[in-house]
Write a structure and sequence with these properties.
With about 220 residues, the chain is α/β, with parallel strands linked by helices. Helix content is about 45%, strand content about 20%.
Length: about 220
Amino acid sequence: MSKAGQGLDLAADKARALKITPVSRETQRRLELYVDLLLHWQQKTNLIAPSTIPTIWTRHIADSLQLLDLAPDARVWVDFGSGGGFPAIPVACALADRPGAIVHLIESNGKKAAFLREAIRITGVPAQVHMDRVEKYTLSPVNSVDVVSARALAPLKVLCDQAFALIERGAIGLFPKGLDVAAELTEASKYWNINATTVASKTSPEGCIVIVRGLEPK
């Protein structure tokens, strides 16, 4: 496909995404800077699946932004395994004008952490990259956290293991999942008493978001 054709596809996809998850003009501009940077880095570093590039706005941006409605008053987010920045950077773009907002991105891969730092610099969003493993980060003293998120990182049981320290302190967990969510909930419930609900995804008919409001080890 020519660059012009790809540009038209991306423009149409952006329009669809912003209809699903409307944002302010300022937030849209920050998101545009982020997408441009990601597509530039994608040429040398695999940040997203190449097959999802034509639908980057719906598949990744809107898919991330939909989490905001599930925690409308949240200011402090911790995102596990941020990778190419989803959902952390879109969330930070939307929270940039909210006093006291900050998103902590936990990413152990050096190249991806470097990309995330550049994305934060370019967009000017309130976010910080921690080049660390999730387990080590959650063992350290952490200030009050409102939301812990993770997208396409690990099965729910593992996410419960990783997020317990934060959820125990009052955070809610927001974990996008796919068709296997029922099996993941069943497996996790063997090890955890979970106060969890699911909400249908706005961007994928097969997807949902698992909202974890309480965890107790069995």
